[in-house]
Amino acid sequence: MTTRVARSLPVSTQVRALFSSPVIRRVLWYSRRAQKSMDRRFFLSLVTGILVFVAIAAVAVTLLEKPWTFDAFGNSFYWGVTTIFGQGDSAYITSPGGWIVSWLLILFGVALLGTITGALVAFVIDFLLKEGQGMGAAGYAEHIVICGWNATARDLVDELKQDEYKAKIVLVHDADRNPAGGEVYYVRGDATHGEDLERAGISSAQAAIVFPSDGTDAADMRSILIVMAIEAMAPEVRTVVEVNNPRHEVHLKRANADEVLVTSQLASHLLARSALYPGLSSLVTDIVSGGEGAELYRVSLPEEYCGLTVDALSATLRREHRATLLSVNRGGHTFANPPADFELSEGDDAVVLAESLTLLAPLRLERIDLAMTAPRTAAIVPSA
Fold first, then answer.
1. Is there a single domain that holds both residue 189 and residue 159?
2. What is the pTM for the complete model shown?
3. E strands present in 169-280
4. Which of 365, 383, 384 is nearest to 375 (CA)?
5. Which of 21-30, 303-312, 319-328 has the lowest mean pLDDT?
């Protein structure tokens, strides 16, 4: 029987986790936005008016009831401030003149409270209106940003909703309503504009997927502009682009798009193979789709596996995790069905076919070596 010892997180870690909350990040974004549009002279005049009014009331009370000393004036000033905020001591004054001053302070405090309440209500209303109209900020981190909307994007959203990784999704699109549904955070805007990409949280996103709005060449040109905008703001974010015309693939690569997919070309290749070998289309659809059945995952292997043969790696995956090795990736190149003597190098990763991410976490791979019998642990991340 094992005993788990609960350890409290450091205060700095708790504070960092609090401010990484999407809601907190949205409120902070709205606060910065409100500060930029705030009339600072109005609030400065309001604070100055409060201090002057309280000072006059303190002088009046001191003259009417207290000895004319600096300490008495300080006590009267403190009483005036607390009276404005509804916490004043009613026993501090005893004369009719003091009562009149107290009533004036209370009336002034009510007006002040109404002004502050109105400002807070206006802030909340602006927050809710902007959220409903797609004019807010997502506040997510490690999420997926979808730029543009079409039928493929709709299918992709349905697919991501079924995936067990449960990544947050943000859609950047210019429409009156959110076409992706309530589970997707909607940012109404232009994905070529840095301000709209910033509201989508592109700098802290995991990946960005760009879709053409229609089947024209102009839509592909716009996709190139979107990729350039993303690369300028967040070059570390992985960009995946759907392109209409295969001839535009080279231009997207020049714009530093990480992956470019010609859906029409991919569909034609799959149809051709299915015509020659029946059943391939249903097999490929099951592999690349979420839900039940086997799915693709990408395995990041530790450096200690350098020199391990691909046959040893494949046998361990099948024996312990019911996972089938499909390819080894090295330096941006994919080695599908490598030879039996293919050895892993530092930085290699692998793509596997498995039933579930849960069954593979944590994944323990054993090096087939008499000198090293201790199992190692590899990290599992979903494949692109």
1. yes
2. 0.59
3. 169-173, 185-188, 207-210, 238-242, 259-261
4. 365
5. 21-30
